[in-house]
């Protein structure tokens, strides 16, 4: 179990458009742990035209998952950085069964495990509407109508089954992702507090 000095090891899971990235930033501040978004890491590599970025781009633009071995290696590197010693918040990883297995093994090497998995539940009509707005605001190449539809399929097929897996482990915390951003953060903090995972600072700060 977690003690307050060790920080928390959290995972945010939910369909594209559920608000994971938005909540990740707030939870990272509240719990004093780095937010690690595989999507953000890939996008910054695409922007910087690194080797990894060039490889990842075609998968991202098609709405497909980047191959597990590439993503797993990336996460292993990131979790070996010192800032994750006191905990972390994963956003967008793991999203396949093979990634869960890999993450388990990386954490187990240090005698660690996740403290909780937060599922952000959102109605598909709402998430698609949000992604449509984001397409205009952020100009993401994978937010086009067709690619969004494909990403939702990939999520349903490859990632949604992980929710049952984490639930069977007793790790799952289901949160309604609809409503004001602050309200959703408060719901998450309240549910985690019930499990003894308390924030270091005011989540709304
Ligand atoms: P969303 O959750 O809205 O789909 P992300 O930023 O998490 O957005 O992911 C964007 C894209 O980055 C994905 O469609 C995929 O191509 C790639 N990606 C992100 N995380 C992973 C992962 N864990 N495994 C494989 N591909 C990933």
Number of domains: 1
CA-based gyration radius: 16 Å
Which CATH-level-2 architecture? Answer: 3-Layer(aba) Sandwich
Shape: globular
- Major sheet characteristics: 5 strands, parallel
Q: What share of residues are in beta strands?
A: 5-15%
- DSSP summary: helix tally: 8
What's the number of extended β-strand segments? 5
Can you give keywords for this protein?
205 residues, disordered N terminus, globular, 5-stranded parallel beta sheet, binds adenosine-5'-diphosphate, 54% helix, 8 helices, Rossmann fold, alpha/beta, single chain
Can you walk through the features of this model?
Mean pLDDT is 93; it is low at 1-5. Strands 2-3-1-4-5 form a 5-stranded parallel sheet, with helices on both faces. Helix 4 (68-79) runs parallel beside helix 5. The protein has helices spanning 20-31, 38-47, 51-62, 68-79, 97-108, 124-138, 145-168, 181-194; strands spanning 9-13, 35-37, 88-91, 116-121, 172-176. It has 205 residues and is α/β, with parallel strands linked by helices. It contains 8 helices and 5 strands. It has a single domain, classed as Rossmann fold, CATH 3.40.50.300. Adenosine-5'-diphosphate binds next to helix 2 and helix 3.
Q: How is this structure best summarized?
A:
With 205 residues, this protein is an alpha/beta fold. The chain has one domain (8-192): P-loop containing nucleotide triphosphate hydrolases (Rossmann fold). The chain has eight helices and five strands.
